[in-house]
Amino acid sequence: MEAKWETSPAGQPADWSLVALPDEAGQRNSWEITIPNGLGYILEFKKNLSAPVLGLKEWERSDRPQMVGLIYYSFRVMSGIGFFLAGLMLWTVLKWLLGDLSGEKIAQQKWLLRAWIFAAPLGYIAVESGWIVRCVGRQPWTLYGQIRTADAASHLPASNVLTSLIAFATIYSHLQLCCISR
Q1: 129 belongs to a structural domain
Q2: Which pTM does this prediction carry?
Q3: What does the DSSP assignment read for 25-90?
Q4: 86 in a domain, yes or no?
Q5: Residue 57, burial from CB neighbour count under 10 angstroms (0-12, 13-18, 19+)
Q6: 148: helix, coil or strand?
Q7: Residue-range definition of the domain harbouring residue 53
Q8: 135 and 72 in a common domain
Q9: Residues 19, 44, 51, CA angle at the centre, nearest 5°?
Q10: Residue 169 neighbours by CB distance under 10 Å
Q11: What is the Cβ-side half-sphere exposure of residue 79, based on CA atoms within 13 angstroms?
Q12: Are residues 133 and 163 in the same domain?
């Protein structure tokens, strides 16, 4: 998730990459903007690390995730949305405490209302980004060091998967229609 290629030893500070362009072939980041000592503060709330942070180069290529850039940016999208939504909640609570969300005053809060409209799909995007981090980031292992993804993949024919998908969609659609009609 951090596109960290080199190991940061214990007892030393480690920079945190804010934005980078991971280069898997060169096993480095082509360019990056870092926050000095940021990784130590994120991990331990102090400048120097008490334990080493292993870089990607510590593992054989066959044992490390592929598509480092996708994992890196998916994590940042997910985290960025989380911080945005937390800030939006804080802004909303502040406005509520100030009495600006009453029936008479809420129409004056155009920027807050627009922010909530903008935020509507962000939870879904954050969830999907999290799944990308989770599923792509754990490759090539399903259970680290125990079973490779290729060995864990299902060998069901596509027709069986399609049949179960249609069955689930039909049942849930029927249940939804029953709930709506009541």
Answers
A1: yes
A2: 0.75
A3: TTTEEEEEEEETTHHHHHHHSSSB-SS-B--GGGS-GGGS-S-HHHHHHHHHHHHHHHHHHHHHHH
A4: yes
A5: middle
A6: strand
A7: 16-63
A8: yes
A9: 95
A10: 10
A11: 11
A12: no
Rounded Cα–Cα distance for residues 182 and 180 (Å): 6
- The CA dihedral of 53, 55, 61, 67, to the nearest 10 degrees, is 100
A 10 A CB-CB count for 141 gives 15
In a domain, 1, yes or no: no
In a domain, 6, yes or no: no
Q: Produce one character per residue of 144-157: b if its CB has 16 or more CB atoms within 10 Å, e if not.
A: eeeeeeeeeeeeee
Length of the chain in terms of residues written = 182
Do 77 and 45 reside in the same domain of the chain?
no
What whole-number distance in Å separates Cα of residue 46 and Cα of residue 50? 9
Strand-pairing partners, residue 16, are 35
pLDDT by 10s per residue, the chain, length 182? 899 999 999 999 999 999 999 999 999 999 999 999 999 999 999 998 999 999 999 988 888 888 999 999 999 999 999 999 999 999 999 999 999 999 899 999 999 999 999 999 999 999 999 999 988 887 777 777 778 877 887 888 999 999 999 999 999 999 988 887 76
109 shares its domain with 135: yes
Last residue of a domain, which of 63, 84, 99?
63
The domain total for the chain is 3
